[in-house]
UniProtKB/TrEMBL annotation:
Keyword Nucleus recorded: no
NCBIfam families hit by this protein: PRK09450.2-2 (NF006982)
Organism: Pseudomonas songnenensis
This protein's name: Class I adenylate cyclase
Origin: domain of life: Bacteria
EC number: 4.6.1.1
This protein's UniProt keywords: Lyase
GO MF annotation list: adenylate cyclase activity
Enzyme class: lyase
Domain Adenylate cyclase class-I N-terminal span(s) in chain numbering: 21-217
PANTHER family named in the record: ADENYLATE CYCLASE
Lyase is among the record's keywords: yes
Length: 941
């Protein structure tokens, strides 16, 4: 304890006595020495050696001492001369070391050496870092700075061998006072969020090790608002020599944006280290609530020394911060938040009061903590609970998490409101804001399917010794799974509340795995009910979760957080609790399991998908029923829209018979679909499950799943116009043995391809148009030429009409070619094949009857048709419902003997229906077929 008996209140205008300044400096140094002694007392002998030697190691360059780089490395600590104890410590390290006092004005580029942080405070423990500020001459050149930086790295490595975690930070005082710095200045500093708040913490916690003393000490707190003028007077009138002091700036005004930046940084830190960071976050809130009449704790610290009220415990930075938080929360009536602040301070001090003191000697920290907790009215039960935090399991951790998340959420809202209210501009860059905001979102935000992270740095081990997993039904008859603590029997279940309930098994298992509740040593009892889940399958599920998504997860880097989240690992679990490969018929229970004849993909009854994304969020989805596989595949591909690199995919199936076959087939299907549809490219993927077809189609950035009940529905879908080339990838099992697979494999953009096959007196014609749409028609067959020539004539007429409508004549040369194929059916062991055929040629004696159709839009959405037969007009306006009968009579009248063979449309104009835009070939062919059907029906009747 240190006391002084008279206050000092220097007034600049009245003149300043140098003796007063000397007295003030002596008070600060006396307090500094007392804190330094406390810091040393809490250290081991080797750690003490590090702290004692630091000033000397920066003062000299000696090849046999730690940190030596070269003889030219900047060395020399201002106003420093080692004492006998420091020289003795140095000689223990190197017998060859001998210190020589240098006389005269030798350059001393190290202007000051300070420790910042918890050393010498109530929060110091054996793990406390040494954050050392090395304040250097601003005139040091780049080479000198590089060597000094290297020296710091070597000293850091040496300190580690002595059991000290040291961090050295080079500080240019001139640049620092201007708010410029190249690196973070503490091991808990985000680097860009704060300057004045960091300076406030420095002035409250810094331990001076040597060099110049802070000029800030000599400026009264009530003169902080005119700090620069006061300092100029002190230096100009030589009250203080400039080479004896170090100016790092003042705390006259803190810009409001710093509260936002520092608050968000503490919010981010609280995700992994909640108690320490929430305590600091509360202090930021206290400061922000006072704005603009802010009074930093460092100013209260300085005022106490000027007033002579020097009490080590009361001036302890953590105790002073707690009292400020306590006053603030008490005035607001926030008792719950105050209790959380007390828990934060208690756990930070880390002196378990339910345990006896070490060696029966109470430390000053323990004595102080006992005094404080008595005023809080805490009892032994509260001490025991907090002191055994390392043993907390899911119930206690979940309860504490709610308090922590409430505080995080409140803190974020407070800062957001503060920003809006004051239009505060944070020194955080937009990049930093994006990173911090997304870290918070990933850690605490809830969304559908997301596995909640319960343990936000609360307990080091949440693994339970034994658990009971139960399948059952709720009051509404819906399935759910429940997890109980301990190994319970069926009659005991009703006497206990479950730790967690979930509708899906995998959601519950993933929650256990993500939070470390189940590990390899946990005994798990299973009551499967009628779920079909076996113990072997349960343990296999947990094993696969551990293997594919090992915990703990590595820290997410900033680049990943700045990008949209995307899957990094995906685990698919097929038919959990179900086995379609087992016979269920009565009387066959003892027989060998038999694989049904259906394809492997048809045996997929359910899929549980566990996804770990690039933000370390774990999500679980379940798909059931006939559409489970295509629906899961659709969602999987949807998440890959913006992704060049595919996630790591693993598939497991635990069916006793052919489980690996099913898993391999599903993995193969996903890989094939990714090759076709991953990314932004437009395309389609076709798969068949049982007798149903499913088309996954990406068009204009949207991925759709189209379910088709049979082959006819598939052909109708393939014939739909889409006005953009859509390639179609067939799953390897989708159309096995079907001629349609041969046709679809020939897809080409900007090309018309005609395929035909014959069967007796009938032929089937298929056309793939320029956008890969399919048209199909059945016609009578006599020979190839009579079958193809009418269609060829129509396509040429359509192409000619398109060319005439195009403005750019250069496009004429690039118009769609027409290619012909004949399909030869399967014969014995020979599979079906395609034969390229030449285009049918026009012959001079070919009968040609020109039938042109013009289709326009009419009233009530109905089309108006006008037909021209050898230039004779037949309009729907004139003939109405008898249009086709009138045309049929005209055609028959021109035929010899009134023959009634089929008639074909030779030309078609759709511009009146589709506007000036170019219609797709499949639309022409569809209208052509309809008109021909109506016309030929009229001819036959």
């Amino acid at each position: 304890m240190i006391r002084t008996h008279h206050p000092i209140q220097p007034i600049l205008e009245d003149g300043i006595d140098r003796k007063v300044l000397t007295t003030l400096r002596a008070r600060f140094l006396a307090l500094n020495d007392a804190r330094l002694n406390r810091a040393l007392a809490a250290m081991s002998t080797r750690q003490q050696q590090v702290l004692k030697l630091l000033p000397l190691l920066f003062h000299v360059n000696h090849p046999m001492l730690p940190g030596y780089v070269s003889a030219s490395t900047p060395a020399g600590l201002a106003h420093f001369e080692p004492d006998s104890e420091q020289l003795a410590e140095a000689q223990r390290l190197s017998r060859s070391f001998a210190y020589r006092t240098v006389r005269g004005k030798t350059p001393r580029p190290i202007q000051g050496l300070f420790l910042m942080g918890s050393l010498g405070t109530v929060a110091q423990d054996e793990h406390s870092d040494l954050d050392v500020w090395v304040c250097h001459d601003p005139a040091l050149d780049a080479q000198g700075l590089d060597e000094l930086r290297r020296k710091c790295e070597l000293l850091q490595a040496w300190a580690a061998t002595q059991g000290s975690e040291a961090h050295f930070f080079l500080v240019d005082p001139q640049r620092f006072t201007q708010g410029q710095r190249e690196a973070r200045l503490t091991s808990d500093d985000c680097g860009t969020t704060q300057h004045y708040l960091l300076l406030d913490e420095f002035y409250r916690t810094a331990l001076w090790l040597g060099g110049c003393t802070p000029l800030w000490w000599l400026v009264p707190d009530y003169e902080e608002h005119r700090y620069d003028d006061y300092v100029r007077t002190l230096l100009a009138k030589r009250f203080v020599r400039a080479d004896e002091v170090l100016d790092l700036g003042h705390l006259g005004q803190v810009p409001p944006g710093e509260f936002v930046g520092a608050g968000l940084w503490q919010l981010y830190k609280a995700i992994a280290s909640p108690y320490k960071s929430l305590f600091k976050l509360l202090l930021v809130e206290v400061y922000a609530s006072q704005y603009p009449q802010l009074r930093c704790l460092a100013l209260d610290f300085k005022r106490a020394i000027y007033q002579g009220h020097i009490e080590l415990d009361e001036l302890d930075p953590y105790i002073a911060a707690y009292h400020a938080i306590e006053r603030y929360l008490s005035e607001r009536g926030d008792q719950e938040r105050l209790e959380l602040a007390r828990r934060c301070l208690y756990l930070k001090i880390n002196r378990p009061l339910s345990w006896p003191p070490v060696h029966r000697n109470k430390s000053w920290q323990r004595t102080l903590l006992e005094s404080m907790t008595r005023s809080w009215h805490w009892d032994e039960r509260q001490f025991a609970l907090l002191d055994n935090r390392s043993q907390w399991k899911v119930r206690q951790v979940s309860q504490e998490r709610r308090a922590l998340v409430n505080e995080l959420t409140y803190g974020y809202r407070f800062l957001s409101d503060f920003t809006r209210r004051l239009q505060a501009v944070s020194p955080l860059t937009s990049r930093d804001l994006g990173v911090l905001g997304r870290r918070l979102y990933a850690a605490i935000e809830r969304k559908a399917g997301k596995i909640e992270v319960v343990n936000l740095g609360i307990s080091p081990d949440m693994a339970e010794d034994s658990l009971t997993l139960v399948h059952g039904y709720d009051a509404a008859g819906d399935v759910h799974w429940s997890l109980y603590q301990g190994q319970l029997t069926a009659p005991e279940l009703s006497n206990f509340a479950p730790l967690k309930r979930a509708r899906e098994l995998l959601a519950l298992l993933a929650w256990c795995h993500r939070n470390g509740i189940v590990d390899t040593g946990t005994h798990l009892s299973l009551f499967p009910g009628d779920s079909g889940l076996s113990e072997a399958e349960l343990f296999a599920l947990l094993s696969d979760l551990r293997r594919t998504m090992p915990m703990p997860l590595p820290q997410v880097d900033e680049e990943a957080l700045l990008a949209a989240c995307k899957p990094s690992r995906v685990l698919l679990l097929i038919n959990v609790g179900l086995d379609p490969t087992l016979q269920n018929a009565a009387g066959l229970a003892g027989s060998e399991p038999v694989l049904p004849s259906a394809a492997a993909e048809s045996l997929v009854l359910s899929i549980d998908q566990v996804t770990l994304n690039s933000w370390n969020e774990m999500l679980v989805s379940r798909y059931e029923g006939p559409k489970a596989l295509p629906s899961c595949l659709r969602d999987y591909l949807e998440n890959l829209a913006q992704r060049a690199e595919l996630p790591q995919l693993q598939v497991f199936c635990f069916a006793r018979n052919r489980g690996q076959l099913i898993a391999r087939r599903v993995e193969q299907l996903f890989d094939d679909a990714c090759q076709s549809l991953a990314g932004e490219a437009q395309g389609r993927y076709l798969l068949k499950i049982r007798q149903h077809f499913h088309v996954l189609q990406r068009d204009a950035g949207e991925l759709r799943l189209i379910n088709l009940v049979d082959r006819s529905a598939l052909i109708e879908h393939l014939g739909e116009a889409h006005h953009a080339y859509l390639p179609l990838q067939l799953d390897r099992a989708a159309l096995e043995g079907d001629d349609l697979a041969l046709i679809l494999a020939q897809q080409r953009a900007g090309c018309l391809q005609l395929f035909y096959r014959t069967a007796g007196e009938l032929a089937e014609i298929s056309v793939l148009d320029e956008y890969n749409a399919l048209w199909r028609q059945h016609l009578p067959y006599r020979d190839e030429r009579s079958l193809l020539r009418p269609l060829m004539r129509f396509l040429e007429s359509m192409r000619y009409r398109r060319k005439a409508q195009q403005e750019n004549q250069a496009q004429l040369l690039a118009d769609a070619p027409i290619i012909f194929y004949r399909i030869h059916p399967e014969q014995g062991s020979q599979p079906a094949r395609l034969e390229r055929r030449p285009a049918p040629l026009e012959e001079i004696n070919d009968p040609f009857y020109d039938v042109q159709a013009i289709v326009e839009s009419g009233e009530n959405g109905r089309s108006q048709v006008t037909l021209y037969c050898n230039q004779q007009e037949f309009s729907g306006l004139e003939y109405g419902a008898g249009l086709f009968a009138a045309v049929a009579r005209a055609i028959i009248s021109r035929r010899r003997d009134g023959e009634r063979y089929p008639c074909y449309i030779t030309d078609l104009d759709l511009t009146g229906l589709h506007g000036g835009g170019r219609s797709q070939t499949v639309q022409y062919l569809r209208y052509k077929a309809r008109l021909e059907a109506a016309l030929n029906a009229a001819i036959e009747s």
